[in-house]
Amino acid sequence: AGGEIVTDAPVTALRRTGATGWQVVCGDRVRAADAVVLATPAGPAAGLLAPHAPAAAAELDAVAYASMALVTLAFRRTDVPALAGSGFLVPPVDGHTIKASTFSSQKWRWVTDGAPDLFVLRTSVGRHGEEDQVLREDADLVAASLKDLGAATGLAARPVATTVTRWTGGLPQ
């Protein structure tokens, strides 16, 4: 109760004040705090904690991150065969490009409500150690996704729209 949430103010340092207080340095501004929540990726959190908790900072620094790309594909609903479930996972040993597919139109009603004539699905590409997959051209990721979807589901339709979204360094391992 009584806390303050500050956004768009990158923290550059934390300073201890006494046994229980903190100073939070945001550029040229310093804020007093009784407690601090670090809602950042491991690397920036490690940098802020290093002067105060070196062991914790070292653990955070050791966290590896993977990158991924989401390939969103929209098809004419009439072109898509009946698909069971809401998607599937692909184990790394299978040698496919995609690691998962979500049948968005079957998983979330709001997707179908928003585009009743379309069937929308999404594939995920990239695993830890496979960052090169995420860097491929959009058209290559779409083609690989369609190939893997065809092998897994029999889907042979061509999408009417595609979008590729990359999350570099977004998945802590």
Q: What's the average pLDDT?
A: 92
The SS-based structural class is alpha+beta
What's the number of structural domains? Answer: 2
The name of the CATH architecture of the largest domain is Alpha-Beta Complex
Structural summary, described in words:
The protein has 173 residues and is of the alpha+beta class. It folds into two domains: 13-61; 65-172, Protoporphyrinogen oxidase, mitochondrial, domain 2 (Polyamine Oxidase, Chain A, domain 2), CATH 3.90.660.20. The chain is built from six helices and eight strands; from the N terminus they run E-E-E-H-H-E-E-E-H-H-E-H-H-E. The strands form two sheets. The protein has a five-stranded antiparallel sheet. A three-stranded antiparallel sheet has the order 1-2-3, covered by helices on one side. A hairpin with a 2-residue loop joins strand 2 (21-26) and strand 3 (29-33). Helix 1 (42-49) packs antiparallel against helix 2. The longest helix has 16 residues, at 138-153. It starts with 12 loop residues before the first strand and ends with a strand. The mean pLDDT is 92.
Summary keywords:
173 residues, single chain, 5-stranded antiparallel sheet, 32% strand, 3-stranded antiparallel sheet, alpha+beta, 2 domains, 6 helices, Polyamine Oxidase, Chain A, domain 2
Summarize the structure.
The chain has six helices and eight strands; from the N terminus they run E-E-E-H-H-E-E-E-H-H-E-H-H-E.
